[in-house]
Design brief:
alpha/beta, elongated, five-stranded mixed β-barrel, OB fold (Dihydrolipoamide Acetyltransferase, E2P), DUF1980_C, DUF1980_N
């Protein structure tokens, strides 16, 4: 690869990193805490590429003045048009296909070891919970703090093995380590919705349904199912 192409590629990649960090698309790949590092890394790449291009242009002009020959960088730009499109068009976040291909994971060993430490749910007619916390409580909370309580969950629809699931993907660092947590929706209210459709459901857990045999996927009886926009940050942590 020519030096011109390398330098332009460096600027494009750095610019793409800064762009996704500023507009929020980086949340499809990593946790929010990584934003400053993405901006800093992208800015450094743009700076290095720009400095290298200026240096090469100065050297090329000096060489042209000396021997009357110059080298066009136009072919490098033409070669990088498809690369530009790849870097600046962000793919969607992981969704239903990833859930179907990956078994739902049991709650963490820390949650299991501290099963008795789950605090009571706050007061209120409807308690909003993350899907990860709901699944952890359903599988390990020996005090049954979910039983008889109406909770609100937000996630995307997954259809698999004749069941309709509400799912979220949990990441520790980035999308590469994502694993699904799932809730089986009873009643059929969400059966007609397309996979990957985002919904908010309110209702109650079916006690005792989250077991090792079903990868800790509790049953949930919805009182309401509402379509919602795809959140800017699609993952849980």
């Amino acid at each position: 690869m020519k030096r011109e192409t390398q330098n332009i590629l460096l600027i494009l990649l750095g610019g793409a990193l800064v762009k996704i960090a500023v507009n929020g698309d980086y949340l499809r790949y990593v946790k929010p805490a990584q934003q400053p590092w993405i901006i800093a890394g992208g800015a450094v790449m743009v700076l290095l590429g720009a400095v290298a291009i200026v240096r090469d242009l100065v050297a090329s002009r000096a060489s042209h003045d000396h021997d009357g020959h110059s080298h066009s960088v136009r072919p490098a730009w033409l070669l990088l048009v498809p690369v530009l499109a790849v870097f600046l068009v962000a793919p969607p976040a992981l969704g239903a296909d990833s859930v179907v291909r990956t078994e739902a994971r049991a709650p963490s060993t820390a949650a299991a070891a501290n099963a008795a430490a789950f605090p009571p749910l706050p007061a209120g007619n409807v308690v909003p919970l993350t899907v990860n916390e709901f699944v952890s409580r359903a599988g390990w909370d020996s005090a049954g703090t979910l039983n008889g309580r109406t909770v609100s969950l937000t996630g995307f629809v997954v259809h698999t093995d004749g069941s309709t699931l509400l799912a979220r993907l949990v990441i520790s660092c980035c999308a590469a380590d994502a694993f699904p947590v799932t809730v089986r929706l009873r009643g059929g209210e969400a059966d007609h919705l397309a996979s990957d459709a985002w919904i908010q459901v309110t209702g109650e857990v079916v006690p005792g349904t989250a077991t090792k045999d079903n990868n800790y996927t509790p049953d949930f009886t919805p009182a309401s199912v509402t379509s919602v926009p795809t959140p800017k940050d699609p993952y849980e942590y």
